[in-house]
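re: ur question from earlier - yeah i can do the single chain one, its not a big deal. heres the input i used so u can compare w yours
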Amino acid sequence: MSHPRIGFHASHEQFPPSELLALARTAEAAGFDCAMSSDHFRPWGAAQGHSGFAWSWLGAAMATTALPFGVISAPGYRYHPAVLAQGAATLAEMFPGRFWLALGSGQRLNEDITGVAWPEKTERNARLRECAEVIRALLAGETVSHHGRVTVVEAKLYSRPVQPPPLLGAAVTEQTAEQVGAWADGLLTVSAAPDQMRKVIAAFRRGGGEGKRLVVQVGLNWAPTEEQALAGAHEQWRTNVLGGEVNWQLRTPEEFDTATRFVRPEDMRESVWISSDLGWHAERLAELAELGFDEIQLHQVGRNQRAFVEAFGERVLPALGRRPMPADGTFS
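and the output i got, formated as tokens:
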């Protein structure tokens, strides 16, 4: 069985940036190997109530821990791709080998605040690839002018890292995974049924992703009792159980709250790993490791973050063989 690195997911939608910073340090002390940051302008629902700026937070988090970090962002809407490239280059220059950037097609909740029209999925995927090509060229030191779905005029990065950070492609469906395989250095996906995850991985490899990095974000909720675990997941994360295109089309937290008002606590088990049994969580993570993931980023969706970090650090992480930090201090 492969031995993936186990990461702590920092959810800006749910916690103040200052609290997330302390939690990242706690996760490092508990034995987590790496971390990942969300990048939201709005929370999913009113119960979450936060949305700090991920890029300034990443600088603080990477300066006060030794953890490698990743972040997922959507270029071409609230972020011009040249601005994302500059942000990624700055972090990678300051913290060599410790940063990766995942690019996704975005969701309306965050991206239409500038007033741009929100396109359908095919157009969003095309814009994603175009922006990825711009970002990669800038990170390579090229002077870029581009006129297409986005416009770039003689952009050049003057402060760049020796090695550009890996650009991952974010995908949930097989179709998107196959498309990002052509340009991405790796795949970022979310946990699902094992058969579905195998299909997504196979599609990514079929599209050009053979041999590239695989990262998965797992939504889970642990608490001392089953009742607490289920209630915590429902209170914080029921706004994320909508399927299909709905997650990417709703505009505001209020719309998500309305759309999920009839979601029951027991419905949460369809999309979140929920259990008070730490051994059960360890078994599920071992199953993911068998699929070949290089990193498994754990997103505890409940508010009991410190208890989760301590419990998993003591009981779950030691049960999993993890990939050690390479001798040069970098993650490939």
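The chain has one domain: 5-319. not sure if urs matches, ping me
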